[in-house]
Amino acid sequence: FDLENGPSGRGALDPQASPGAGLVLQGTFPHGQRRESFLYRSDSDYDLSPKAMSRNSSIASDLHGEDMIVTPFAQVGAIPAPQRGGDTALHPAPGPLPSWRVPPAEDAHQKLSRETLEELDWCLDQLETLQTRHSVSEMASNKFKRMLSRELTHLSETSRSGNQVSEYISSTFLDKQHEVEIPSALAKDKEKERRKRPMSHISGVRKLTHGSNLATAGIPRFGVRTEQEGLLAKELEDTNKWGLNVFKVAEYSGNRPLTVIMYSIFQERDLMKTFRIPTDTFITYMLTLEDHYHADVAYHNNLHAADVAQSTHVLLSTPALEAVFTDLEIMAAIFASAIHDVDHPGVSNQFLINTNSELALMYNDASVLENHHLAVGFKLLQEENCDIFQNLSKKQRQSLRKMVIDMVLATDMSKHMNLLADLKTMVETKKVTSLGVLLLDNYSDRIQVLQNMVHCADLSNPTKPLELYRQWTDRIMVEFFRQGDREREKGMEISPMCDKHTASVEKSQVGQRRGAGVGATGPWWGLSSAFPQVGFIDFIAHPLWETWADLVHPDAQEILDTLEDNREWYQSMIPRSPSPPPEGPEVSPATTDKYQFELTLEEEEEEEGESDTELEGAESPLDEDNSGSKTPATDDSE
């Protein structure tokens, strides 16, 4: 895995590419009263040595010991370790003993014990050298999915909100097969028209002319012209810090946060000099890329891309990873973050599949959007004066493309549990079998860490300051509700968390807390998302960031602290008595779960008028931050 990284780059196998022999996995230490994720709960039907605890142990303040192992392969690897360590105690006296002092039976037992331990050691040595990452991590993935499904079952039984959150997490973050809905007659007519169009081109790519303007006017200080350069400079002082206010950067840069932040990062890391990227070419590409993010999409827009790119930049700079990755790998990770959602139509993969969209047909229903983001991101390199990789060698370019593809495809949220299991298995296995040293001496291990890094950055909203986190929450709810409206128009079943009428029921309950002063501002859908955010943190964000923190310990402790603080804030927004499941003799147990989050016809009609009025009257996050030119959504999402 020797890459040609230019003058200052180092090969991945270069002894100087990492301190010592690799990434040293530090032991974990008590974190006060920080909660542990559900991964540390007992999976008693399968664990080799289950830890006895109540089902709510993670919600309380139970802390696991620093040597607790939860992935199956690492558990097997940990079994001989204490026996090897205690071998001296079993055989303290070297040299022969008088025959009259050692009974024949005991001597035979010691010999058998020693031979067994030697065989186990040999087996472990063989296992460590095999390419078994996928098979052994699959054991952990299956275990984690089983545990998460059990937790979601319990959650769905607690309240209407619990049922909705459970359905959303299950459908989004577990790689399940979904039934494809049959579109309505109107949708079928549109589909016939769409099938007449050729599929030989990458949709969404438009011709833009930024290069000529740069050539005549020169390169501004931050890559874009702005009348608020001083304020922008002040915000960009936090480029290397966790919690940069990307909304302020967008405001002061004329809604060009992605271009400005990427330009700042590449200058900070001296990547344009290392890989001989012409400045005007870099700016031209970034402006073109940013224009292909839709300004009328509430969440998956240029703000999100800028936030993920900057978060990846900070994670790459963590002390534990100092000098671990090459310059080419660093550039690949930051570039992947920048393009990872380009031309996003504001709907999910499942929506595109259910509507038989052109994109779903092109990519055979597999990571539809992620494949499209990659195609657009690389296609834009072919536009005039946009090839920022023009001076890379052929080998470098091929290596970078492979890494970027692997990282962006890993942002498909249905792959979340597999990514988490891969990372946790790798970390725990190295702890028990390799003296706590993670060598990262092959492509598989290195890309695995980079994939999880970008995935963490993609799911970093709950770890940011509460002021920023709440804005992201408002935006994702707007995007969800817009998808729900489109599903309603098409006569489709509305996806979990996407029905604004259902959410308005929770609004009326959570809104009662406004009088206390907390959460008194902002649209009602931000308040109605309190319960979903707690569930998202408990079952998705916390396990992921907890595992990342184990990898880079102790560098991510402040991030975990912020995550916990934000969870507690959203927890405080949840009414003490959540709405119970529907009751009444006419509702059978078999149908309770299926319909426990639905409204009666009368309730729906009443709420529809109120909700539509509030949605139209409330100030949308788009009105303030995405005031730039609107880019129409691609036809593929129709």
From TrEMBL:
<feature type="active site" description="Proton donor">
    <location>
        <position position="300"/>
    </location>
</feature>
<comment type="pathway">
    <text>Purine metabolism; 3',5'-cyclic AMP degradation; AMP from 3',5'-cyclic AMP: step 1/1.</text>
</comment>
<dbReference type="GO" id="GO:0004115">
    <property type="term" value="F:3',5'-cyclic-AMP phosphodiesterase activity"/>
</dbReference>
<dbReference type="InterPro" id="IPR040844">
    <property type="entry name" value="PDE4_UCR"/>
</dbReference>
<dbReference type="GO" id="GO:0007165">
    <property type="term" value="P:signal transduction"/>
</dbReference>
<feature type="region of interest" description="Disordered">
    <location>
        <begin position="1"/>
        <end position="28"/>
    </location>
</feature>
<feature type="binding site">
    <location>
        <position position="340"/>
    </location>
    <ligand>
        <name>Zn(2+) 1</name>
    </ligand>
</feature>
<feature type="binding site">
    <location>
        <position position="458"/>
    </location>
    <ligand>
        <name>AMP</name>
    </ligand>
</feature>
<dbReference type="InterPro" id="IPR023174">
    <property type="entry name" value="PDEase_CS"/>
</dbReference>
<feature type="binding site">
    <location>
        <position position="304"/>
    </location>
    <ligand>
        <name>Zn(2+) 1</name>
    </ligand>
</feature>
<dbReference type="Pfam" id="PF00233">
    <property type="entry name" value="PDEase_I"/>
</dbReference>
<dbReference type="GO" id="GO:0046872">
    <property type="term" value="F:metal ion binding"/>
</dbReference>
<keyword id="KW-0114">cAMP</keyword>
<feature type="binding site">
    <location>
        <position position="341"/>
    </location>
    <ligand>
        <name>Zn(2+) 1</name>
    </ligand>
</feature>
<dbReference type="InterPro" id="IPR036971">
    <property type="entry name" value="PDEase_catalytic_dom_sf"/>
</dbReference>
<feature type="domain" description="PDEase">
    <location>
        <begin position="224"/>
        <end position="577"/>
    </location>
</feature>
<comment type="similarity">
    <text>Belongs to the cyclic nucleotide phosphodiesterase family. PDE4 subfamily.</text>
</comment>
<feature type="binding site">
    <location>
        <position position="458"/>
    </location>
    <ligand>
        <name>Zn(2+) 1</name>
    </ligand>
</feature>
<feature type="binding site">
    <location>
        <position position="341"/>
    </location>
    <ligand>
        <name>Zn(2+) 2</name>
    </ligand>
</feature>
<feature type="binding site">
    <location>
        <position position="341"/>
    </location>
    <ligand>
        <name>AMP</name>
    </ligand>
</feature>
<feature type="compositionally biased region" description="Acidic residues">
    <location>
        <begin position="600"/>
        <end position="626"/>
    </location>
</feature>
<dbReference type="InterPro" id="IPR002073">
    <property type="entry name" value="PDEase_catalytic_dom"/>
</dbReference>
<dbReference type="InterPro" id="IPR003607">
    <property type="entry name" value="HD/PDEase_dom"/>
</dbReference>
<feature type="binding site">
    <location>
        <position position="509"/>
    </location>
    <ligand>
        <name>AMP</name>
    </ligand>
</feature>
<feature type="region of interest" description="Disordered">
    <location>
        <begin position="181"/>
        <end position="204"/>
    </location>
</feature>
<feature type="region of interest" description="Disordered">
    <location>
        <begin position="572"/>
        <end position="638"/>
    </location>
</feature>
<feature type="binding site">
    <location>
        <begin position="300"/>
        <end position="304"/>
    </location>
    <ligand>
        <name>AMP</name>
    </ligand>
</feature>
<keyword id="KW-0479">Metal-binding</keyword>
<keyword id="KW-0378">Hydrolase</keyword>
<protein>
    <recommendedName>
        <fullName>Phosphodiesterase</fullName>
        <ecNumber>3.1.4.-</ecNumber>
    </recommendedName>
</protein>
<dbReference type="InterPro" id="IPR023088">
    <property type="entry name" value="PDEase"/>
</dbReference>
<dbReference type="Pfam" id="PF18100">
    <property type="entry name" value="PDE4_UCR"/>
</dbReference>
<feature type="compositionally biased region" description="Basic and acidic residues">
    <location>
        <begin position="181"/>
        <end position="192"/>
    </location>
</feature>
<feature type="compositionally biased region" description="Polar residues">
    <location>
        <begin position="628"/>
        <end position="638"/>
    </location>
</feature>
<dbReference type="GO" id="GO:0006198">
    <property type="term" value="P:cAMP catabolic process"/>
</dbReference>
